[in-house]
Amino acid sequence: MADNPTFNQEELRARFNPEGSPLRRQQMVMLEMVTVLDKICKKHDIPYFLYGGTLLGAFRHNGFIPWDDDLDVAMMRQDYKRLMKVLPAELPSHIALQNNDTDKNYFLFITKLRDKRSFLDEGNFDKVFQERGIFIDIFPLDRLLPWTQRLRVQSVAYNIFRKGNGSDSAMKKIRALTWFNRHVSFPLLRGISRLSGTKALMCEYGIPFHNIYDLRDVFPLTTHDFEGVQLPVPGNSHHMLQTMFGDYMQLPDDLDNVYHHVERLEFYD
User: Fold this and answer.
1) Which residues pair with 238 in a beta bridge?
2) Is 184 part of a structural domain of the chain?
3) Among 40, 217, 264, 267, which lies 20 to 30 A Cα-Cα from 147?
4) Going residue by residue through the chain (269 aa), what tens digit of pLDDT does each one get?
5) Where residue 100 sits, what CATH number does that domain have?
6) Its pTM surpasses 0.90
7) How buried is 18 (Cβ within 10 angstroms: 0-12 exposed, 13-18 middle, 19+ buried)?
8) What gap in Å lies between CA 171 and CA 168, rounded to an integer?
């Protein structure tokens, strides 16, 4: 494992996310949602694990990176498909499921769980989405040929959105492109990857993260403390974190520019 951190966790918390601050409140909403997800996955024996910056936070901070305003989990595609089938009946009424099936203008290829008791404006593509509460992201992972992932065929949707500023005509084109990629091009590319026998584990098509992982680093899963809750993490998280972040136990050099950009955040009683 990496060396122990040399920074002061309490000083970071006081600077970025003290108790009662909007960011800390947002983090606690995300923590609640991931514990709900954890219970559902355990009930249905669906493996998942902390991913990305959330995995980094677990090992470097035993919880959220102090300035982080999102939460990521990942799972293999077959488990992702099973989860999508059970979530609609299992989620409590204050948490919404958001994906290509539930929101006609949602053109991302990750699923979000959204808190209905809040509103979050990222000043981005989310302005056309039906659900806009605080969210956590669920990433599907596949065995993919790296060159097929880098075709970036869904990136055209972002260009259409920017040029049309989310207009009705722009969204009509984006919905058509998203449908085609979801039902035609992406299944075809996944099929080519399966036939190749590739061992490269990557994010689903349409997700702009191209790190290549080793399935042996993921399974068997173990657990790690995250904000006082034991949550699943890859068995060799050290190697996965090195792949994503390099010397991951070191803080960024410029802590003045580490915030994510949120235009507006509201909590409803």
Assistant:
1) none
2) no
3) 217
4) 455 567 899 999 999 999 999 999 999 999 999 999 999 999 999 999 999 999 999 999 999 999 999 999 999 999 999 999 999 999 999 999 999 999 999 999 999 999 999 999 998 899 999 999 999 999 999 999 999 988 888 999 999 999 999 999 999 999 999 999 999 999 999 999 999 999 999 999 999 889 999 999 999 999 999 999 999 999 999 999 999 999 999 999 888 888 777 889 999 97
5) 3.30.460
6) yes
7) exposed
8) 5
Q: Cβ neighbours of residue 158 under 8 Å, at least 6 residues apart?
A: 125
Residue ranges making up the domain that contains 244: 9-142+208-267
- C-alpha 180/C-alpha 172 separation (Å) is 13
267 near 118, Cβ under 8 Å?
Answer: yes
Alpha helices in the chain, H assignment, sequence order: 9-16, 22-43, 52-61, 77-90, 146-149, 155-164, 168-180, 186-196, 215-218, 237-245
CA-CA distances (angstroms) from residue 230 to 144, 227, 233, 240?
Answer: 30, 8, 9, 19
Residue 157 lies in a domain: no
Structural domain count, the chain? 1
The answer as to whether 86 is a domain residue is yes
Amino acid at site 216: R
Nearest to 109 by CA among 213, 212, 210, 205: 205
For Cα atoms 32, 124, 135, give the angle at the middle one, nearest 5 degrees.
10
Tell me how many helices (H) and strands (E) the chain has: 10, 10
| Contact present, 125 and 170 (Cβ < 8 Å) | no
